[in-house]
Write a structure and sequence with these properties.
CATH topology of the largest domain: Protocatechuate 4,5-dioxygenase, Chain B
CATH architecture of the largest domain: 3-Layer(aba) Sandwich
Oligomer: single chain
Structural class: alpha+beta
CATH class of the largest domain: Alpha Beta
Distance between the termini: 38 Å
CATH superfamily of the largest domain: LigB-like
Number of helices: 15
Radius of gyration: 25 Å
């Protein structure tokens, strides 16, 4: 993945100033507070009589606690009243920390940019950045740090006065998200962020919706464009309300809809638990606020996301922990059969198995998102006690349902492991399949907490990472020092890089093999 934000020359300033106060919103604290209070009061009264927007189908009322909100980021004269609906819905739960996601309007890049600043200023008072979280996030290759990207961007700043007025002195984790053209990047970023969320956290996504008209070079409708825009926004909401990442990405590919916060919204969808749902609280357009002309329009939606179980965010490592402990025998057999079927279809017919072919392996257990590696070994028929690595590919993070993870990585290990040539038809009878199903990675305080043979290990340092499954150290007879040295070298770092400034995740694995 290309990323246009370099680690070189980072400017570690202390405070990001309010760049748009006095233009996009009031700079005078009293006037600004009065304006926001008026917006919130009006939203409160409206939500009593109409809890959700009536023009959207399957629009369920939200329930406490609110996991996340989506709020527009135009000038307050255009979208402040709509933003207030989202904040009013969430204000009663008093979060201790807010993860703030928004798009980049001025700098093009892939991945996400974190601030180097410790403080974000607003006319209503400063907000402190949770530097522990931003520093840890910067270890992941998907994330970079830049004060300049944050300094120029308005999408996050437009939320800050509302955050300060509604929730007071709360810590923030500000993240500007660029393009994420690969669905796996969306899912991975969502799962990484998900790990840091605690029950009393709130996620705020800053996004406007459809930008229509010649000003935005988007005019797909020949007639009744206002109704067409409304249909687009309703379809976008339908995907978001079901946190359907694949459907939402497909929607953009199909319609080219101009949702400026598309990728932050997609990442939110990847973060939400399976039992979450979205509620549209208010829908307006810029023409409802101030009619500039009859050719251009920007849509504003206030959304809130709840959990049908009426729970807040759960720590990621606790999700599915009971299931992670042991795979049922029937699941083991079906996963191995699925991997064998996938291998044969991929190598002999250059295709994935069809939906009907894989139904035997799809159930509630395998629909759970889990990480897994698929390893192929070549076995000599005359020396079955010896095997030679032929390919190994996997997902460390639980980014897809387990059955899809096995399919993806069986194909990957047979054709996309750069160390080997693609598997040929003549090799199929000689290959043996192993699958390692992983628990969610979690951070350890020190490398001294790593248990060799039990733990798979991910090393992070200077934007680089490397991973070994739990079995690797055992197979090679490594002790902890040698394991960490090999991890450092695999990451392209000096052999002793693990000793200072590195961070470590660990995970456990349950291995199943065709040999068993």
């Amino acid at each position: 993945m290309n990323n246009f934000i370099s680690r070189a020359g980072l400017n570690f300033s202390q405070k990001r100033q309010a760049a748009f106060a006095g233009t996009w919103y009031e700079s005078d604290p009293k006037k600004l507070r009065a304006q926001i209070d008026s917006f919130l009061s009006s939203a409160q009264a409206a939500l009593v009589t109409r809890p959700v927007e009536t023009g959207f189908s399957q629009n369920l009322e939200p329930t406490a606690p609110i996991l996340a909100i989506v709020s527009p980021h135009a000038g307050y004269m255009f979208s402040g009243s709509t933003a207030a609906f989202a904040y009013e819905q969430a204000r009663r739960q008093r979060p201790k920390r807010i993860f703030l996601l928004g798009p980049s309007h001025y700098v093009g890049f892939e991945g996400a940019v974190l601030p180097t600043d410790s403080i974000f200023a607003t006319p209503l008072g400063d907000l402190l950045v949770d530097k522990d979280v931003t520093e840890e996030l910067s270890d992941f290759p998907l994330f970079r740090q830049s004060s300049q990207v944050h300094k120029r961007e308005h999408s996050l700043e437009m939320q800050l006065p509302f955050i300060r007025a509604t929730f007071g002195d709360v810590k923030i984790v500000p993240i500007i998200i660029g393009s994420l053209p690969d669905e796996m990047d969306v899912q991975l970023m969502g799962q990484i962020l998900r790990r840091y969320l605690q029950p009393d956290d709130l996620v705020v996504v800053s996004s406007d919706f459809t930008h229509y008209g010649p000003r935005y070079e988007y005019q797909p409708f020949e007639s009744d464009w206002k109704e067409g825009v409304r249909r687009l926004d309703a379809e976008a909401f339908a995907h978001l309300s079901k946190h359907d990442v694949h459907g939402f990405l497909d929607f953009k590919e199909r319609t080219a809809d101009t949702i400026c916060g598309f990728y932050p919204c997609a990442v939110l969808s990847a973060m939400l638990p399976e039992t979450a749902y979205g509620s549209a609280l208010q829908y307006r357009t810029s023409q409802d606020a101030i009619v500039e002309d009859d050719n251009n329009s920007v849509s504003y939606l206030a959304l809130a996301f709840s959990d049908s179980r009426k729970l807040g965010w759960e720590p990621l490592q606790h999700i599915g922990s009971e299931r992670d402990s042991s795979l049922p025998d029937s699941v083991k057999d079906n996963l191995l059969a699925l991997a064998r079927l996938t291998l044969e279809r991929a190598v002999t017919e250059n295709r994935r198995p069809s939906e009907s072919e894989i139904q035997f392996a799809v159930n509630d257990f395998t629909k759970t998102k889990m990480g897994a590696f698929v390893t192929l070994y070549r076995v000599d028929p005359e020396k079955t006690d010896q095997k030679e690595l032929r390919g190994c590919i996997g997902y460390i993070w639980p980014v897809k349902p387990l059955f899809q993870t096995v399919i993806d990585n069986t194909i990957g290990s047979s054709s996309r492991d750069y160390r080997f040539q693609p598997v040929s038809k003549s090799e199929l009878k000689e290959l043996e399949i192993d699958i390692n199903v992983l628990t969610a990675p979690h951070r350890v305080n020190s490398y001294k907490d790593i248990v060799v043979g039990r733990d798979g290990v991910v090393l992070y340092k200077n934007g680089r990472q490397s991973v070994f499954l739990p079995s690797v150290a055992t197979e090679f007879g490594w002790d902890l020092s040698e394991l960490l040295t090999q991890l450092s070298l695999k990451a392209g770092l000096p052999a002793d890089a693990w000793q200072h400034g590195a961070r470590f995740d660990v995970f456990q694995s349950q291995s199943i093999s065709e040999r068993e």
